[in-house]
Amino acid sequence: MILTDRSGYRKGGFLLNIEQIETLVSSRQFQQLKYFQEKTNVFTIVGQTHTEHWHSAFMSWLLDPNSSLCLGHYPLVRLLFLYMIKSETEELSVQTVFEMNLDTMRFETERTFSTADGKKRSIDVYGENEELILVIENKVKARENMNGTDVGQTRDYRDYVEKHRKSGQKVICLFITPDPKQKPYDRSYTQITYQEFYDYVIAKCIEHPQLNKDGKYLLEQYANNLREPGHGAPMALVNIQLCNEIYDRYSEVLDEIFDDVEQSDNYLKDSRLSCVVYTHYQSILDEIFLSLDEKKFGRTPKSNIQRRFVSFTDLYNAGKIQNGTEFIMKYDGVCYYAIAEYDPQDKECYMLLLDEERRPYHNAKGEKIGFYKASSQAGVDAINLYRKRNNIVSRVETLNGPAYWKTKDGIALKALMDSL
After folding, report:
1. What backbone torsions phi and psi does residue 78 show, to the nearest 5 degrees?
2. How sure is the predictor about 308, in pLDDT bands with cuts at 50, 70 and 90?
3. CA 110, CA 127: separation in Å to the nearest integer?
4. Which of 147, 179, 354, 418 could anchor a disulfide with 337, C-beta 3.0 to 4.6 Å?
């Protein structure tokens, strides 16, 4: 077999054989990664792998200076440092953090309150002392949407905190998500990915010499849980160093496997040794490929395996839709409308819901509302809003939005996504 390198030029005459595969899969590093993947994960056992409330509860426990970790405010300081790195804020400084009495911080999950118009809201993670208020909106699977109000959840949380803050209290609002493309409604929030949260907080705590045995076990179990797939990709890659070590030792073999699988029409039925090995060790090999720098891989051989979702921004950048592209959804004999709207400031494209007259919804301030990144949630909200206005009791819980929403030319959104 003649291989090509990453740029497509031919190289060498390397032929993958059983001996080389055996050397890879029997290596200590490969078996160690396999063990990490296969060892019992207590969170998987109890069915709490990617439950948003559960992740928030764990995060609250981790950050609490009085938790059973016995690390004091060390995890919280790591998070505040990450916040300063990501936000480049001048409001908070290293000196300010060091001068704070962070041991007095108290954390809770689901801090519940009511908005001025009576809507019930719950802040996922809320921490407070006399000097600081920390608000964390934790998005694992769900996406921020209208939720029957004129503004997003994050704005409601911010307004509540600003109204109740004491003199001298600093307010920090974080939006933590596995998806780097997901942005909060309120732009005053600082986005942190679960990968960053693991790298800057959890991994540092695991390495801390004062971490007790029980705490280390729980953090390692939680880290192992983060690598469980959610929306087709891990929430965070936690074995990057080990994966890079494997690649450094066996790059030629792994390059061959990656190239053959990527080029195969159906690797599951492909009889080539590289495809057979990939099929058998797919989860392990995928973690290796995903963990490498993007100049090497940074993705799985089949992009549709790695891709968490195809966003409207992806479609816009690919030229599949334009600013103003119209969408129509027919459900139970009712037509619903939306358009694609591109925001040049943040370089993001959204689905904007329209009313029956094909006009945007507006809040009391005259600002357009009803922007979505996910067509399924847009469809659910549109249907339920119609039913509420027409006194229809039943509500829609789920919807395959890409299959229902179509362009005015009759092209399904799913077809546009599949074309990428």
Report:
1. -60, -40
2. very low
3. 11
4. 354
Closest CA to 197 of 172, 230, 174: 174
Residue range 204-222, pLDDT digits in tens = 999 999 998 888 888 888 8
Q: Name the residue among 98, 45, 55 with its Cα closest to residue 74.
A: 98
CA–CA distance, 221 with 62 (Å, rounded to integer)? 13
pTM: 0.62
The type of residue at 211 is L
| Angle (deg, nearest 10), helices 273-280 and 18-25 | 20
Q: How many CB atoms lie within 10 A of CB 141?
A: 12
Tokens of 282: 């797919």
Is residue 231 left, alpha or beta, with left meaning phi > 0 and alpha meaning psi from -120 to 50? left
